Amino acid sequence: MAHAAPAAGIEPLPNYVGGRWEPSSGRASLDVHNPALGTVIARTPMSTGADVDRAVAAATAAFAGWSETPPAARARTMFRFRALLEENFEELARLVTTEHGKTIDESRGSVRRGIECVEVACGAPSMLMGQSLENVAAGLDCVAFRQPVGVCAAIAPFNFPAMVPLWFLPFAVVCGNTFVVKPSEQVPLTLSRIFELLEACDLPPGVVNLVHGGREVVEAICDHPGIRAVSFVGSTPVARAVYERATRAGKRVQALGGAKNFVVVMPDADLDHAIATITESFYGCAGERCLAGSVLVPVGAVHGEARDRLVASARALRVGDGMDPATQMGPLISGRHRERVAGYIAKGISEGARLVLDGRATAAPERPDGYFLGPSVFDAVDPAMTIARDEIFGPVASVCPVGDLAGALEVMRAHPNANAASIFTSSGKSAREFAHRASSSMVGVNVGVAAPMAYFPFGGARDSFFGDLKVHGRDAFEFYTDRKVVTSRWY
Ligand code: NAD
């Protein structure tokens, strides 16, 4: 990160290993910024392979005892964890806004989604039940137990500092595994605070470990022979690399990648509902959401009205410091990312798309040093253009009109990412056709952000997901356990 402000006097954050806070062995550190203010608020240490070794050693030592702890006792620690998250809900939401920039309401929503994962994990004694069958042959009985897999690790992106780590930690731990997690180096504070809460949950030392850092930590996790399972969330190139490297090292891996989400508007859609919902989908979290709408696909005659109403609605959004309750869209994560998104706007113009709303001049007057970029809309976008292909991960909508629903489905299928897709329509037939044929595996019908709840599987397809078992819900209990089948005959 190339932000200039020096972080004099700010010590790098400690790691949490074997039940203790300890300094990272890495010499380098990165400044962490409040994106609304542009100020340095913390430093992330760039931990080393030696730090990962220490965390894995602690997790390995803890595994013997923790894996033998009865599921109901493990679940009880998650009930305590849930209560502490709830008690500290507002502080956690404020931390998310402070280090990420999203609005305080968006932060509250994301912490809530994280807590819901802990709630699902609390059901472990039921969810971990296996299968059994009497008399598979005369006098022969069979039972399949679920057993924890060992030391598991997770690597998180910057855009959901609380929620994404909580997609994994509660499930891994409640299944009897021990755990190592690396948050994004851009947003290390929220997870550090969550670990302080975990300290009060009576987990034995080494059950949960936190290692800050970047690429070196990720590669050490992929290669470490003591780690059995790796969960990754981030951009597609890194997800693919992590999947390949960690599976080559013999681990089970789930790697969630980037997205390019298409939102189809049929001529029979209720546009009042649709445009309000679509505006939230495209510009919520400043577009830094893996389920954010990115390409608007109006079908037939609705094109002009849908575009004009989206432009009006986007232009009206109040951009500013996410901590201000009146703000509707916060800053981007960093100055570098803002430049990258602005670069895509320039690219769209140069490739011939029509920029009908330009957010580049938008500023938040009371926050002159924040990383703000206003909402932008491109019309007449061809699906082959860079802005319709690349994940921009910012507040830029591309309007890509088509003639019919089949054409919309074709545009979506031609894109390598397949995370989420939505349709707005009042026709059950169109909705059913869309849900059945969409290439994405998270589909919304008159819903702009089709995020599955914590008890359903979450994850995309094709270049948006590498692996088979998805995140949270029953898949999490599958991912974090092995089946042992015992066949018995008693004489
Ligand atoms: P990123 O890929 O840059 O980083 C993700 C993690 O990988 C971070 O912890 C980072 O330290 C590490 N990392 C970065 N570069 C690496 C490298 N070369 N080698 C090894 N490790 C590396 O992603 P990001 O910018 O933090 O997050 C945004 C991305 O995450 C977007 O593409 C978004 O779509 C995706 N995302 C996907 C989902 C999903 O459910 N599919 C959810 C949230 C975010």
Keywords:
491 residues, alpha/beta, 22% strand, disordered N terminus
Largest sheet: 7 strands, mixed
Rough shape?
globular
- Number of DSSP E strands: 22
Strand order of the largest sheet: 14-15-16-13-12-18-19
Share of residues in helices: 25-40%
Count of individual helical segments? 16
The structural class is alpha/beta
From the N-terminal CA to the C-terminal CA, the straight-line distance is 69 Å
Ions, cofactors and other bound molecules: nicotinamide-adenine-dinucleotide
Provide the β-strand percentage band: 15-25%
What's the SSE blueprint?
Layout: E1 15-17, E2 20-22, E3 29-34, E4 39-45, H1 49-68, H2 71-87, H3 89-100, H4 104-121, H5 124-127, E5 131-137, E6 140-148, E7 151-155, H6 163-174, E8 178-182, H7 189-199, E9 208-210, H8 215-223, E10 227-233, H9 236-248, E11 252-256, E12 261-265, H10 271-283, E13 293-298, H11 303-315, H12 335-350, E14 354-357, E15 376-379, H13 386-389, E16 396-399, H14 405-413, E17 417-418, E18 420-424, H15 428-437, E19 442-445, E20 461-462, E21 465-466, H16 474-479, E22 481-489
Helix pairs in contact: 1-8, 2-4, 3-4, 3-7, 4-6, 8-9, 10-11
